[in-house]
Amino acid sequence: MEVRVGPLRSAGARVRATAEVRIPDGRARELWFEVDAADADRVTPHGDPFVFAPLMLALAGGHDLVVTGATLDPVLVERLAEFVRVWSAWFGYPEVRIAAETRPAVAPRPGTVVAFSGGVDAAFSAWRHTRGDAAADRRVDAAMMLHGLDVPLSDPAAFARASTRARRMTDDLGIPLVAVATNTWQLPLVTGHFTGMGVAAGLQLLAGGSGTGLVPSTAAYRDLVVPMNSSPVSDWMLGGSDFAIVHDGASADRFTKIAALADWPEALASVRVCLRHAGHDDNCGRCTKCMMTLTALHVLGVHAPGFADRPDATAIDRWARTLPRSAYYLQEGAVLARAARARGVDEAWVATLERRIRRARVKAGVRAAAPEVSARVARLHRRASTWNARRRRSG
Asked: Alpha-carbon distance 294 to 304, whole Å?
């Protein structure tokens, strides 16, 4: 598989960086990133942003990757070789190699850009490096918001609304928001394994103006779940000598982050955690991510104007019965239950959530220890459920 990086092109008020991705079957796809012309000086002239999506395609197809037309950072190439080994161990991909012309390794320039979706993790990272406990650690001089990830390229009006909402927070912190549009997620990627790589690619694009990119953490060190597509185990491997990638904020769990943001009015009014809202620019107040955030706010006794609804304990109890059984959501649910107990909250939903988590983990343990027995029990359960349903319908 080959990636041929092209020159930076200007088109009116926009600047586009492009590459041609040639798949072994002969098909060619254009991969591009685009920013406002006012942010053109932040764009790197190197090929580093263009290695990530093709690498995901190469992993999925078992092909080695060749990058031409621009240089790669030698340390990035070295680290990506280790990253490939991690993805092979975690997700079963074949180990592939990257061939490219490299440039001399240099120290990173000052300045930091933080990936900023407008959600809790991003808001916390931006806040802690400007007003929180890490304000003296590094100078955050930009926030990067991707168009094409959770808000589709086909809906520029929705992205304008979502970025306006995000910009209220970054403006309040004195950080410029740089919108990066990309067609990366229109490529035939294994998206569940790529999100962290895609965010790193957007940050790497802005290496012309900063020397470090912050990827806001998803899970805390205490509650780390692996494998995960963005993790302190692997994110640092997506950076090089002249642009480091830092997995940021993992010393705090999600409840701790929300508790910190509860003292920041603009975050309460503007944070956007929802991936289910039809307009892509608000919180639906019903999906898992919304309910996890609203439950944390309920424990804290805080109302967030950014959510139209404020569920009571009964509504939270109904939601707790449906918590998804993935390892990540079970762990985040455990964080919520632990925080509620620590704060003396003794409402029914806490026990419901704990019971849901306990049962799901027992089932996961049985599946792992005895997969054949587990599958047989699941089949019997489905048959019993079907028989009971027929019996009820027949009167």
From this structure: 8
> Residue 322: which of 361, 353, 359 has the closest Cα?
353
Give mean pLDDT, residues 225-251: 96
For residues 240 and 279, membership in a common domain is answered with no
Residues in Cβ contact with 49 at an 8 Å cutoff, skipping those fewer than 6 apart: 17, 33, 201, 202, 204, 205, 207
Please indicate, yes or no, if residue 257 is contained in any of the structural domains. no
Q: Report yes or no on 173 lying in a domain.
A: yes
Q: How far apart are CA 367 and CA 373, in angstroms?
A: 8
48 secondary structure, DSSP code = G
- Domain enclosing residue 351, as ranges: 274-395
Instruction: Enumerate the β-bridge partners of residue 29.
Output: 21
Confirm whether pTM is higher than 0.85. yes
Q: What φ, ψ does residue 159 adopt, rounded to 5°? A: -65, -35
3-state class of 158 per DSSP?
A: helix
User: Exposure string (b/e) for 82-107, b if CB count within 10 Å is 16 or more?
Assistant: ebbebbeebeebeebebebebbeeee
Question: Which one, of 176, 235, 162, lies nearest residue 201 by Cα?
Answer: 235
Q: What is the DSSP string of 199-216?
A: HHHHHHHGGGT-SEEEEE
Q: Please give the backbone phi and psi of residue 195, each rounded to the nearest 5 degrees, phi first.
A: -55, -50
Q: 13 pLDDT band (50/70/90 cuts)?
A: very high
User: In this structure, are strands 14-22 and 9-11 parallel, antiparallel, or unpaired?
Assistant: antiparallel
What confidence tens digit (pLDDT) does each residue in 108-148 have?
Answer: 999 999 999 999 999 999 999 999 989 888 889 999 999 99
On the 0-12 / 13-18 / 19+ scale of CB atoms within 10 A, 269 is middle
Of 248, 282, 300, which residue is a domain's last? Answer: 248
For 246-266, what is the mean pLDDT? 97
Which of 231, 248, 265 is the last residue before a domain boundary? 248
Q: What are phi and psi of 158, to 5 degrees?
A: -65, -40
Q: What is the pLDDT of residue 192?
A: 78
Give the chain's domain count.
2
Distance of alpha carbon 186 from alpha carbon 168, whole angstroms: 29
- pLDDT score recorded for residue 373: 65
